[in-house]
Amino acid sequence: MAKSKWSPFPHPDKAFVYAGEALRKNWERLHRGDREPFPKDPKVQEAWRQYHRGAFAEAVALGLAAGGAGLTVANKAQSIYANGLEKKAAVRSALLEEAMNRAQAQAVAEPKNANAHYQFAYAAGRYSQGISVAKALSQGFGGRIRAALEATLKLDPKHAEAHSAMGTYHAEIIDKVGALVGGLTYGAKKELGEEHFRKAVKLAPDSAIALTEFANGLVMMHGKKALAEASALYAKAAALEPRDAMEKLDVEAAKAELE
Asked: In which domain, by residue range, is 254 found?
């Protein structure tokens, strides 16, 4: 997609600029959720700098040009942009599908790369939400997303974002097809969903996405009974100080939920 058509990040902040050594110094803090290793290639480092400050189109271009570990940042930047900033549904779907296909190819080429599997699951999950979860299930996305998340967590059991996504997998299916069919056909269970959400929050307690996905999942699985706990989670997420552009989008989404 032509990067000139991409919407600019609406919340630029000097705090999200990790110039020079600042990227390495803050890496662990920035990547607690996805546990991506610090890249050796300076070109890939620069792609991540653009990603963290919200220059998503630049991050994609630099990541694709670098190749290798650059594909991970390109796919993440494209998916986060599509999910958080792209207003046109057709463009959003196309961007997610492209990221999903690239991540799948990367996972085939690098089967031990946890984030290649995870980026496929993330993009495919958001794509599925866009076309409707019921339609996505009929097209076999449920099994593919679950398999990719299982691969991620087998390679890296402490991958907080994958735990959040696995929790969402259980919650979405129960919400769309019910607990009985969800359990029998897709292995979706409320207790397993909650277990993954709680693990994600334990691994990354200061992650807005871990808190908001947990809140969303509770409402999907338990309805009105979960509103109080969900509201508390949204409030906690809304009060966080974002570390980068993605987290800023997550914090703003939590604030919108509270309103």
From this structure: 6-258
